[in-house]
Amino acid sequence: MKNLRILLTILLYLTVQHIMQAQQQLNKTDDDATFTIKGLVREVDTYNPVVDVNIQVNGGSYTSTSLSGEFRINVKIGDEIMISHKDFETIYYTVKSHDDLTVEVHALIEDAYVKKIKTKSNSFKNTIDSAVFYKKISAEKSIQFITESIPKSTSVKQNAEAFEVLADVYMYWKQYDLAVTNYRISLNNVNATDVNLKLAKAYFKNKNHQESLAIYNSLKTSDLSNWQNVIRYEGLGDVYAQINQNSKATQAYTEGLKIATTNQILPKITDLNSKLGEVYNSEGNKAKAEVLLENSVALAAQENKTREVEQKIKFADFQNVNQSYDQEIKTRKEIIKDIAVIEKDSVIANESNITKQKQNYKIGNAYFLQKEYKEAIPYLEKSIEEADKKEDLIVKKDATKKLTDVYVESGNFSEAKLMFDEYVKTVDQLYIKKEQEISQAARFNKSIAEKQNRITTLETDRKLTLSQVELSEEKNKSQQLIIYSLIGGLFLLAVAAYLMFKYIKQQKLANNLLALKSLRSQMNPHFIFNALNSVNSFIATNDERTANKYLSDFSKLMRAVLENSEEDFIPLQKEIELIELYTKLEHFRFKDKFEYTINIDKTIDIEAYQIPPMLLQPYIENAVWHGLRYKNDMGLLEISITKKQKGVIAITIADNGIGRKKSKSLKTQNQQKHNSKGLGNIKKRVSILNQMYKDKVDVFIDDNTTEGGVGTKVVVTLKKD
């Protein structure tokens, strides 16, 4: 009994603490008011304005300077403004007042490589070489060089090369749809086998599996080199594995492995052993998978240390999936030693699997899964320490969460509380970082789209120019070329416009989904807080049977809430079951304050309607807590579902409580603010869902005049899909 009371008290504290911190993160105060600051960027010596300077508020607005070097941007006191441009060092400025801002900059000295490029002959080959050099450094610079190379192209072969390099750049920066477009343009100029293989891979990365298979299958084995055949079979295996056709994947990988082994193509022998092992493991053939994965580790060791570690990690993941935790721990400890060797000669990015923080976390997780909590703690602590050092918030979040679980499972609740607080803090930091990354990605995609449109236009202009040159020699033929070029240009522009429209639509949908997820996470803490207090009260009075019954019903309700938390809409039947359970719990606590009825028109086909989850619960909670419980006599809560017209129903929640006006006068200032936020969140949810699903839900709140006084009535109108 005593342990149960302690556990419930800790759960209550952690829940309320987390909710309060989340609300502090989301709720803005009056001191956060934004204003517009005006600025100017100019050179320090000449006072000439600097054009196209990127002006960004940390995690907020974004703009760029005009032809006059001026900009305007919305900020708050304390915001940090980042002022960046390719020609000068990035400047950071903290907003302290409403005063206008003048930024004077010194131009950077160009690096030796760029100087070398500019002194060379300004040929197509040199420009393409520059594009290849910058491919992994700066997508913008690489694309700019390609843009400059297209007008210098003197043949269809050079034109095909330019678009192939452009597609390679998009592949590296994971813009797979644009890569597909440009590989196809390259192939329209020159039909090359290597480009076909790249296009097939781009389709696979863009999840166009059937198109990828069609290209791989169209290539004849007899027309390909040994290397190309290995790439083709590996690509086929990747696609079949992705669409769960394991037998075909096994066959393709095996054919590729035979060719690679015969011709001693060592890197591909390693890769294909590893991929075959993964397929066999997914089919449940553990023994065969283990042999192949061990082979891949041994083969990778003959190449270099990094390749060996990559394969060891795959082998450790295999051991984890098959619950061979002791072997997994042993393997990952070897990996950590290998990483220390690799780090002496190179810097490992956080995105790589080859990091100490990830491997320490996975060792700790393996110990946790074996319930060896004492052994798990030092590795999870090492993971957190390494993640802090490398500023890897994702691993730190996972490690602090896992360490919290370890302390809870081992009964060390004080350490669990400290770790949970650190976890919440890390989640908040990660949320801010993700917002910044989304903002940066949006600007990157916009910049890429603009450059792609520019290249498309240049390609159209180039074709038009060629047509005009040939006009004197073959008038009729050149007229046809002009028409075809115009049609092709319009088509390409239409494709570019469609891609931009698709991107904007996806971005809007992503923003709506993010907003819905945020609003769903803000469940009003009243019921959780009071329900747990009630259980605590029942335990304190030794009413264990009542506490168990209440806690059982409360658990059912929480399970239902969690199951529905990720859905935009759920069946109306589920929502009715949820509010029946919720109203039952509230009535259980306030038996002497109100009775309730739930009436459903039998002519309504409930299964035909969908409703946002937890939409009705806040209104029922308001009716009980702010209307009925303050009545001196017995109140009544009426919940009814009636047919309004064909395909439309009305859900009415009516009470004969003290009414909205009197309830408001009884509340503290803090309560009024909280309730308005809660109802505001409901309105935001309904507004976003109506945008996404075309006015499906409507909510109307009014006074409910009864013989005993004025209560409150909420009418939710719901349309059938």
TrEMBL record:
Lineage: superkingdom: Bacteria
Signal peptide bounds: 1-22
Pfam hit, one: TPR_6
PROSITE patterns assigned: TPR (PS50005)
Domain Signal transduction histidine kinase internal region: 516-594
TPR repeats: 357-390
InterPro entries (UniProt xref): Bact_2-comp_sensor_kinase, CarboxyPept-like_regulatory, HATPase_C_sf, Sig_transdc_His_kin_internal, TPR-like_helical_dom_sf, TPR_rpt
Gene3D superfamilies: Histidine kinase-like ATPase, C-terminal domain, Tetratricopeptide repeat domain
SUPFAM superfamilies hit by this protein: ATPase domain of HSP90 chaperone/DNA topoisomerase II/histidine kinase, Carboxypeptidase regulatory domain-like, TPR-like
Gene Ontology MF terms in the entry: kinase activity
Keywords, in A-Z order: Kinase, Membrane, Signal, TPR repeat, Transferase, Transmembrane, Transmembrane helix
PANTHER family: SENSOR HISTIDINE KINASE YPDA
Protein name: Histidine kinase
Species name: Olleya marilimosa
